[in-house]
Specification:
Layout (H helix, E strand, L loop, with lengths): L2 H29 L2 E2 L11 E2 L2 H18 L13 H27 L3 H17 L6 E2 L7 E2 L2 H21 L6 H19 L3 H21 L8 H20 L5 H10 L1 H16 L12 H7 L4 H23 L4 H31 L5
Antiparallel strand pairs: 1-2, 3-4
Helix pairs in contact: 1-2, 1-7, 2-3, 2-7, 2-8, 3-4, 3-7, 3-8, 4-5, 5-8, 5-10, 6-7, 6-8, 6-12, 7-8, 8-9, 9-12, 12-13
Length: about 375
C-alpha cells in the first residue's frame, strides 16, 4: 500500500494551513469580515470567520501535489482507474461548491430557505456525478438495490444533513475542527484497511488541514472556520462515507459512516426534535446543542470540547472494531475507558462547581 502518498497529502495540507491561516486572519480583520459577539454566541470579541479558506486551500493543494507526483495509485501501486480518480475530484468539486455556499452565507447572510435550496441542488448534482447511495444493507440479508427515485433523496438527505450537522456543532473553539479531524483520521484508517485509496487520500488531506487549523482554532481561538469551512468539511466527510466506506453490501460497511459521525448526527437530530417539540422552527439558532447544555451544567469551555472529543473517539473506536481492523476490539476498549475517565472528570467538575455555588458563607 502506498502509504507515503497519504502521508504527503496529510503533511502538505497541514503545512499549507499553518502558513496561510494567519494571512487569512489578517485579511479578515483589515476587511471587516469578522463575527460580532451576541447573546447566543460564546466568543467575547470579533472573530474572523474565513478559516475555511485555508482548510479548503490546504486540502486542494495537497491533492494536486499528490496528483502531480503520480500518487493517485491503488493498493497494488498501480495508477487508479479513471472512475476512482474521478471520485476524488468529484468529492473535491462538490466540496468546493458547498464551500462557496457557506462562504456566501458568511459574507452576505443567506436566508435559511435560500441556503437549503442551493444545498439540495448541489447535493443532487453530486448524486448525478456518482456520489450515490444506491443500495440498502440489512443485517443477515442480501442488499436491497435502491431505484433512483429513492436513492436520490436518501443521498441528498445524507449529504445536506452532514453539512448542516458539522456547521451546527461549530459552536465552541476547536469543537468542529477537532470532531471532524478525529472522524477524518478514523475514515483514513478504515479506507486504507478496506482498500479504498481514493477515499483515503481525500481524508488524509482533510485530516492534515484540520490538525493544522486547530493550531489557531483551539481555545482560545484566533479564527473560526465559518460556514464555508464547516460546509466543506461536512460534505467531504459525507462524500467519503459514500464513495469509500459504503462500497460493499456488508451491513457493517454500510453503517460505518453513521457510527464514525454519530456525535454531530445525534446532536443535530436531538436539536431538531427538541425544537419541533416546543413548536420552534428547526432552522432558528438557539442554545439547545450538546455543547450549550454542557456549558450550562457548569463545564468549562475546554472541558466541554475535550469531553465531546472523547465521545467522538469512542464512536470512532467502535467503527474500527465493526470494520474488522486488526486489534479493533482493543481500540474500542481503549475508547470506552477514555470516555469513562472523561465522564468521571466531568461529573467531578460539575459536583465541585455546585458545592462552590451552594456553600454557605463563612461567618
Amino acid at each position: 500500500m502506498p502509504y507515503p502518498y497519504h502521508l504527503i497529502a496529510f503533511a502538505v495540507s497541514a503545512l499549507v494551513v499553518l502558513w496561510s491561516t494567519p494571512a487569512v486572519n489578517k485579511f479578515g480583520l483589515k476587511s471587516g469580515l469578522f463575527d460580532v459577539p451576541d447573546k447566543r454566541k460564546v466568543h467575547q470579541r470579533p472573530m474572523v470567520r474565513l478559516g475555511g479558506v485555508s482548510i479548503f486551500a490546504g486540502t486542494l493543494i495537497a491533492l494536486l501535489v499528490v496528483w502531480w507526483s503520480g500518487g493517485f495509485v491503488d493498493a497494488r501501486g498501480q495508477i487508479l482507474p479513471p472512475n476512482q480518480e474521478y471520485e476524488i475530484w468529484g468529492v473535491t468539486i462538490g466540496g468546493l461548491a458547498f464551500f462557496l455556499i457557506g462562504l456566501a452565507d458568511d459574507l452576505f447572510g443567506l436566508s435559511p430557505f435560500t441556503r437549503l435550496l442551493i444545498e439540495v441542488i448541489v447535493a443532487s448534482a453530486s448524486w448525478k456525478a456518482g456520489v450515490q447511495i444506491n443500495f440498502l444493507s440489512m443485517p443477515f440479508q442480501d442488499a436491497l438495490p435502491l431505484p433512483d427515485w429513492i436513492g436520490l433523496p436518501i443521498t441528498v438527505l445524507w449529504l445536506v444533513g452532514m453539512v448542516n450537522a458539522t456547521n451546527w456543532i461549530d459552536g465552541l473553539d476547536g469543537l468542529a475542527a477537532g470532531v471532524s479531524g478525529i472522524a477524518a483520521f478514523v475514515m483514513l484508517i478504515v479506507s486504507l484497511f478496506m482498500g479504498q485509496p481514493a477515499a483515503a487520500l481525500i481524508v488524509a488531506a482533510l485530516a492534515g488541514a484540520l490538525l493544522g487549523f486547530l493550531r489557531y482554532n483551539f481555545n482560545p481561538a484566533q479564527i473560526f472556520m465559518g460556514d464555508g469551512g464547516a460546509y466543506f468539511v461536512g460534505f467531504t466527510l459525507a462524500g467519503v462515507g459514500v464513495i469509500g466506506l459504503v462500497k460493499t453490501t456488508a451491513f457493517t460497511s454500510f453503517a460505518l459512516p453513521y457510527v464514525i459521525l454519530a456525535v454531530p448526527i445525534l446532536d443535530m437530530s436531538a436539536v431538531i426534535l427538541d425544537r419541533l417539540r416546543h413548536g420552534k422552527s428547526p432552522f432558528i439558532a438557539d442554545k439547545r446543542h450538546l455543547h450549550h447544555r454542557l456549558l450550562k451544567a457548569g463545564l468549562s469551555h475546554r472541558l466541554t470540547v475535550l469531553f465531546i472529543y472523547s465521545l467522538t473517539l469512542w464512536a470512532g473506536s467502535w467503527a474500527l472494531a465493526f470494520a474488522g481492523v486488526p486489534h479493533g476490539l482493543l481500540y474500542a476498549l481503549a475508547g470506552t475507558l477514555l470516555l469513562g475517565f472523561t465522564s468521571w472528570k466531568v461529573w467531578q467538575y460539575i459536583a465541585r462547581r455546585k458545592n462552590e455555588n451552594f456553600s454557605p458563607p463563612s461567618p
